[in-house]
Write a structure and sequence with these properties.
The protein starts with a strand and ends in a 9-residue tail after the last helix. Helix content is 42%, strand content 14%. By secondary structure, it is an alpha/beta fold. Strand 2, helix 1 and strand 3 form a beta-alpha-beta unit. An 8-stranded parallel beta barrel has the order 2-3-4-5-6-7-8-9, surrounded by 8 helices. The protein has a two-stranded parallel sheet with strand order 1-10.
Length: 390
Amino acid sequence: MSKEIVQIFDTTLRDGEQVPGCKLNTDQKLIIAERLDDLGVNVIEAGFPISSPGDFNSVVEISKIVKNASVCGLTRAVKKDIEVAAESLKKAVYPRIHTGIGTSNSHIKYKFNSTREKIIEQGFEAVKYAKKFVNDVEFYAEDAGRTDNEFLAKVCEKMIEAGATVLNIPDTTGYCLPFEYGEKIKFLKENVKNIDKAIISCHCHNDLGLATANSIYGVLNGARQIECTINGIGERAGNTSLEEVVMIMRQHDQLNLDTNINSKLLYDTSKMVSESMAMPVQPNKAIVGANAFAHSSGIHQDGVIKKRETYEIINPLDVGVNESAIVLTARSGRAALAYRAKNIGFELTKNQLDIVYSEFLKFADQKKEVKDKDIPVIIKNSNLKSIISF
Ligand code: KIV
Ligand code: ZN
């Protein structure tokens, strides 16, 4: 049975780029947009066109070069924002306007000093207005994570009536628990009477480290789009990480869900984004961190050398990483030392290995990591008579 496809909406260039210090110029954004298109994302959120002339120009230029993905511009539920976004998207093959408004009590009361009725009216008018320019209009109910489900359902129904093709349900503050977020999506599927006319989208922030789990609960309960960023960058603790949700669906056949992402480009894309934004990826980051396929304890190394799957659930080649790394530290065992020594041309017998290993441990205790260049030195210091000459 073929798997159902979940759309990937990449917002690296909008929500991701909002991170202090991550600002990109148009040329840098164009390189990333082209790569995202090759990666196979369905939507590229290219910016917030009214926010600055630079952002407007980036959306214009990205619209010209992206061939496959929809190009999307963010707006508030404000006519001028929508006009500017429509103008910036004119050259896009598949333009999308992403408009919306806060729907939680706190947004309605403190941010807008408004009422529920007026908020629905403003959202409705915004979607209708955006539809005059493009067919594909996504509506976001900001802070949907803290919006009560009955009211949210009413909002969704009205926005679909106005012509919204996608309903974005953001957990803007990263507050929801996975089961709550899943129930919210299920509630909308079951209680919005015209829901079959739109796709539900998950947009989860990572304030409690739950963005990935929440997005997965969202799609398990009927959402069919995930909004995410490369390396999970984004406001505060970030957004859902693209590489994580993609690989969760790919690795778990029982979910019966997949994406169109070419996962072999994930590692390279992660490096590209990290370098151009000068935003390092934490070494233990799932899928793309420097240690994601590195093994350093003796027990794990022995297992991986015997059979990679013992300690790896993903084949590194599938995400564009050339091979698993066997890192030599004072916690490594004989198997790892023999493996690394063999890789650089030293085949050690069992007796030789015993001798070299005790020298290795002395060396490793002084260092964080033993490199390939250190191995001949260790062997030499071991005073082996029958070893390969240097
Ligand atoms: O987190 C959020 O609510 C957003 C919206 C503007 C879509 O980024
Ligand atoms: Zn966001």
